[in-house]
Amino acid sequence: AHLDRTAAVDGAVHAFLHVNTDEALATAADVDARRAAGEELHALAGVPIAVKDIVVTQGQVTTAGSKILQGWVPPYDATVVTRLRAAGMPILGKTNLDEFAMGSSTEHSAYGNTHNPWDLDRIPGGSGGGSAAAVAAYEAPLAIGTDTGGSIRQPAAVTGTVGVKPTYGSVSRYGLIALASSLDQAGPVSRTVLDSALLHEVIGGHDPLDSTSLPGQARGYADAARDGDLAGVRVGIVRELGGEGYQEGVRARFEEAVALLEQAGAEVVEVSCPSFDYALAAYYLILPAECSSNLAKFDGMRFGLRVEPADGPATAERVMAATRGAGFGDEVKRRVILGTHALSAGYFDAYYGSAQKVRTLIQRDFAAAFDQADVLVSPTTPTTAFRLGEKLDDPLAMYLNDVATIPANLAGIPGMSLPAGLSDDGLPVGFQILAPAREDARLYRVGGALE
Ligand code: GLN
């Protein structure tokens, strides 16, 4: 049914870069046969899923939305994918994204825009716009995204879906093509909080193949989502997220969601995180610094594209320059240049060093706020989905979409966006919940109570 739906609507939505019809049907048939034979299978066995095309899949093309990886077939599976396969989940295909997950609109993909199913002239968010659009358009019931500064939560917000960024280190990064290694985290996209909880339990838990993987297993999320009891739960409204610059309809839906939490028994308090004013600036130094290093491996020798210089000798350096010049898009080049500059001798302390200090201040703000509240809440994004092309020529306006999502990545804490109804423009609004590190279950308890 999902493959049929995809065939019918994906020409207009363009959520997928590759669809794996044969493999998905074979997995589904295998699960059916095992169930018929009486085998006890996972609750999600046979439930199909779409995977963001920055997560490697053995034998299936993985591009990260970049020309530099056009046609590249990974020789191994990411741990997340290994776990989906082990649970018997058919992988429908790979979804569109901003190149190497840099962006907030999926307009920076080398393979064309994804359209928001609510209004095809609007962006589906980014970088994981393909995963969110696939779920919103009923092409897939579930998807995997990655969130470095908001790329699961922001697309979820603007497409009316649920998206979860787990605690840093709680879902393996093995086999995620790295954007910024200290910030990246894979997580679920779904239509309900309970669906995300079930998927999170499948993909989470310790992985010896990831050196930053936390010990322990991913348990208790589905139970928390089903619980619904908020008696005594302290909910903190973050003063710095949600005031000026936020669309009126976004603020109205946010306040209604807070009132619902209060009705369900939660105690609402206000908290202040003054360092959040500097989060965006710090992020746009730390992320380019890390990505300039991570993307150095795309050199025309090891992976994908190789371009010979137009004239003159094909030295290693000249092949590298020709390949990267042709293979990377403008946003990737902008960040590699920024990051290389921020890390260079003479500028390192002023830029990268200062940004790391701000990161510590943000972590302290969160620690103080979580003394007063069990979870923090805010709108996920300042506005609903904007029009395709509207912010493409204005990188700063594009970056501002992530003001409310970025602090969680800088602190390594978990966050969820869930639908809070429609704004006055008829477009979905996202409600963000944040919890202390390793307390992901709180997201599901509070989110589940709202559902
Ligand atoms: N939009 C943010 C950026 O461009 C977030 C990206 C992400 O989470 N992958 O960096």
Automatic annotation (TrEMBL):
Output the Pfam families linked to this UniProt entry.
Amidase (PF01425)
Relate the assembly described in the record: Heterotrimer of A, B and C subunits.
State its role. Answer: Allows the formation of correctly charged Gln-tRNA(Gln) through the transamidation of misacylated Glu-tRNA(Gln) in organisms which lack glutaminyl-tRNA synthetase. The reaction takes place in the presence of glutamine and ATP through an activated gamma-phospho-Glu-tRNA(Gln).
Q: What is the lineage of its organism?
A: Bacteria, Bacillati, Actinomycetota, Actinomycetes, Micrococcales
- Signal peptide, first to last residue: none
Query: Which is one Gene Ontology cellular component term of this protein?
Result: glutamyl-tRNA(Gln) amidotransferase complex
Q: What is this protein called?
A: Glutamyl-tRNA(Gln) amidotransferase subunit A
Q: Which reaction does it catalyse?
A: L-glutamyl-tRNA(Gln) + L-glutamine + ATP + H2O = L-glutaminyl-tRNA(Gln) + L-glutamate + ADP + phosphate + H(+)
Classification via HAMAP family: GatA (MF_00120)
What family does this chain come from, according to its entry? Belongs to the amidase family. GatA subfamily.
> Which positions are catalytic residues?
K52 (charge relay system), S127 (charge relay system), S151 (acyl-ester intermediate)
One GO biological process term is:
translation
EC number(s): the record gives 6.3.5.7
**Residue stretches making up the Amidase domain:** 1-443
* Alphabetical UniProt keywords: ATP-binding, Ligase, Nucleotide-binding, Protein biosynthesis, Transferase
Show the GO MF annotations: ATP binding; glutaminyl-tRNA synthase (glutamine-hydrolyzing) activity; transferase activity
Q: What Gene3D superfamilies does the database record attribute to this sequence? A: Amidase signature (AS) domain
